[in-house]
Amino acid sequence: MSLQGTLPQRRHFIDDASAIGEARRDAQRLATEAGLDETAVGRVGIVVTELATNLVRHAERGELLVQTIASDSGVQIEVLAIDRGPGMADVQRCLADGYSSGGTSGNGLGAVKRLSGLFDAYSIPGSGTAIVARVGKGRGPAFGAICTAVRGETVSGDAWRLAFRPGEVSAIVFDGLGHGPLAASASEAGIEAFAAIPFDPPERHIARSHERLSGTRGAAGACIRRWPDGRLSFAGIGNITARACGGERSQGLVSHNGTLGLQVRRVQQFEYAAVPDSLIVLHSDGLSARWDLADYPGLRQHHPALVAAVLYRDHGRGRDDATVVVVGRD
Q: What is the CATH number of the domain that holds 105?
C-alpha cells in the first residue's frame, strides 16, 4: 500500500525574469530535503529554470507549483507550469530540439522531457498551456493533486490524502472553515484519522472525522473508494465536489449538508456502478463546480496532474484556498 499526501505546493508566480532564480533555489531546497542526490537536485534546477523561462518568454505571466511525490519505489519532485498564454498549436514540434518560436536555441522543453521521469504537456492555442515534469526515482500511481493557500496565508485550510493498493484507491479531501492555521488544524485532524485506516468504508471515515473535529473550527469533507471492478463507494458532508468522469458520461456524487465537527444530521454512504475508464475528481469550493471535461479536447487522455492543473487554472476562484485531486486508472 502507498499513501500519498503533501503540504501545500511551493507556489511561484512567474511575472518576470527575476522570479526564475528564486523558484529554482526553492525547488532545489525541497529536492534536497526530500533526499534526492546531487545529480537529481541539479536536474530539478534545470527543469524549473527552463519551465519558468518559458513562462516569462511566451506567457508573460504564469505559475509554477512544486511538490514532493512519494511512492514505494522512491521520491520525485513534481513541477507544474501553468499559464493562460498563447498556447502551442503543435506540442510535439515544440519538444524537438532546435525548434523555437521566440528566437532562442529551442532546447528548453526537449531538455525538460529528457531530464524527467514523467513528462506531459497539454496546450490549446489561445487558451494556454499546462506542463507536468517529475524528477527523481520511482513512478507513483496515476494521480494529480493541487493544494494551495489563498494569497496572504502561509498554510492552506484544505488537505487531501490518497491511499493505493493493487486495484483500489481511497481518497479524502477536507476544507476547513475559513483560512489560515485554525482551518488547517481542522482539516489535519480529519487527515490523521484517515491515514490510520485508509481503506475503511467512506461513511466510517466521515463519521470518525466528525468526532475528531469536535472542538475545531469544523470542515467540509468527502471520501471515495474505488474497488477493483470500478465500483465506487462515497460519503461526504458539505460542499466538496466529487465526480466520476468517463469518456461518454460523468456521474456526480451526492454529499449531505452539514459541517464536520459542528453539525451533522446524517452520514450516508452511496454506492455507484462503475463508469468505464473514469477519472475521479474531488475538489474544494476554492474551485467553481461549473466545469465539463468535454470542453477540453483530448485532456482526459493526458496525465491526471494536467487535468488537475487545467481545472485549477480555469476554475479556481482566486479568493479561497483551493484543492483539486484527480485519480486515473493505472
A: 3.30.565.10
Lookup: cell for 319? 479568493
- Sheet strands side by side (includes 118-124): 10-14, 62-71, 74-83, 128-136, 118-124
96 with 192, same domain: the answer is: no
Positions of E strands within the chain = 2-4, 10-14, 62-71, 74-83, 118-124, 128-136, 143-148, 158-165, 168-176, 219-226, 232-237, 241-245, 250-252, 270-272, 279-283, 322-327
CB 184, CB 155: distance < 8 Å? yes
Rg (CA), the chain: 19
End-to-end CA distance of the chain: give it in Å, rounded. 15
Is the pTM higher than 0.90?
yes
pLDDT by 10-residue block (mean), the chain, 330 residues: 68 93 96 95 96 89 92 87 86 60 54 94 94 88 93 92 93 96 95 93 97 96 96 97 89 95 95 92 97 94 97 94 91
Residues 159 and 271 in one domain: yes
Predicted local confidence at residue 104, as pLDDT: 39
Contact assessment for residue 4 and residue 140, using Cβ atoms and an 8 Å cutoff: yes
Of 115, 136, 157, which residue constitutes the final position of a domain? 136
Can you give the pLDDT at residue 204? 97
- Contact indicator for 81, 55 with CB cutoff of 8 Å: yes
Distance CA 206, CA 88 (A): 43
